[in-house]
Amino acid sequence: MDFYIPQTPEQINDQAKLTLTTFGLSSVDRLIYKSNISKLVANEGVKEDETNPFKSDIDKINAKQITDRNISTNALSNFGSPIFSNLILKKRSYLDNDLKEITTFDEDVMLDCVLFDVAQTKTIITTPIQGFNGTIKEFISDGDYALSIKGIINSTKNGVYPLTQAKKLFEALKSPIELEVTSWYLNEIFGITHIVVTDFQYNQIQGSQSMVSYEIQAISDRPIELFLNKV
Predict the structure, then answer these.
(1) I need a surface site. Which of 77, 111, 159, 183 has the fewest CB within 10 A?
(2) pLDDT score, position 216
(3) Could you give the domains of the chain?
């Protein structure tokens, strides 16, 4: 067998390209394959950390996935499956014009499998100036968040309409006050803790008696406390 030893830089470059083309991909494939099956081989003599040249990159990816992981709701649906996104309307009471305490609903309303659409319009005043192309923009403030909330109420029994859950949600949506909400999506990303319901509707689903869909339109709110000083 004859051995070829390159002498000039051009020959070295050509030999390197040939080596990568001939042996490179197969070597990489073997390394990746070995790192994947090392956990399955009980009598593997060499540790995975020593054979995997990509360990440092994998550790970085795993660390980022831990940081960016889906926030768990720690809740389960009626079927026992984990819930990714839910909404809880906290029970409330308020004082009417006669300072009488009114209870809107007795217990928290928990909604599973909720989808959110969140939008915001900034308050900006535009002023046209003669001889100036375009307008002068004056930023005033961030506007309220506009929320579109959609979901389905499922009954705990097949073929039975979820009347109790539907009535509880209706009572909450009819409340003439802002509602305190708990939702990792609204709380963590947008900082929304209270909403004011503007519109809502229930929709029957054709061919199904054990569920009802709903759509809620709302805007975000920031409760403000006013203090009266006696003179």
Answers:
(1) 159
(2) 96
(3) 9-67 (no CATH), 87-221 (2.40.30.200)
